[in-house]
Every structure is written in structure tokens, then in C-alpha cells.
Amino acid sequence: MGSGDQYCYTDNGKVRAQGFEAEISGSPVERLQVLAGYTYTQTKFLKSINEVDSNDLTFSSSFVPRHMLRVWGDYQLDGALERWSLGAGVSSQSENSRYNRTLKIEQPGYTLWSGRVQYRVDQNWTVALNGNNLFDKKYYATIGAPGWGNYYGEPRNFMVTVQGAF
Fold it and tell me: What does the alpha-carbon distance between residue 126 and residue 143 come to, in Å, rounded to a whole number?
């Protein structure tokens, strides 16, 4: 119940979110750095204010996806091209959803690809071109209700960075 930008909310019970994260990084071959991470999250009603038996009920809104995977690799070229490095990454997640009364707003899982080309100017300076969402995937960064809270994620974009280390 509300008017304009004012809304009223009420407690609907108790929910538990639990899961785990795992991350591994290293250099499987010379000049290649790899980072991979996985996150699993499960949400469940512990107690519902409604008189419905809440045992083994999955929480009806899953703002956080159940599965998330991120992998990034960076390779430094050799020989005459040793000042150059190339990077590529992928970020993938399962579907997420939200119930608004009897309407379910859901987003299917999606995958985003990114890349980077870097040049080492000298021992202190690097210049890099970073590309994000390279295939211009349309997705929601957040999901809300039919009339609010659904915000698109960033479209394909590029950024030049200059970094100095002293």
C-alpha cells in the first residue's frame, strides 16, 4: 500500500541464505596467470508468517543467483612482443527471480565476456584497453517488480587505463 514513492512493508517470516565460495589462482604455464571462482547460494524459508508449512520451501524470491562462475586469464607475450599482454574473462550466472504477489519476474541465466590488451611502456607505466560485455548481452543487473527496480546491466563498453607504479 502506498502512493507515489512511498511504500509500506511488513515482515513475512525468516529466511536463511547459505552456500559456499571457492577460488583458485595460479600460473599453469609460464607467462599465463589464471583466476577462477565459483559461488553457490541457497535460500530457504525457516519460518513463514503465513500459515503455510515452511519446511523445505525454497525462498520465493532469488535476488542472488544460485550459481555464479568467473574465470579470467592473462597471458604475457614473449620475445619481441614481451611488453604486451592479453587477457580474457567470462562471468556466468544462473537465473534469478522475484515474486510480486502472484506475478513472478525472472531473468534467465546469462554469460558476459570481457577482454584486455595491455602494453608495458617501461618498468613503471602500463597502458591498457579493457572491453566489457563484448557481445553486448542485454541483461538486468537487478530485478524488482513489474514497474520498478529492473535495471539493465552495462552494455558493451571500452576503457583505456594508464597505471603507474613507483
Answer: 38
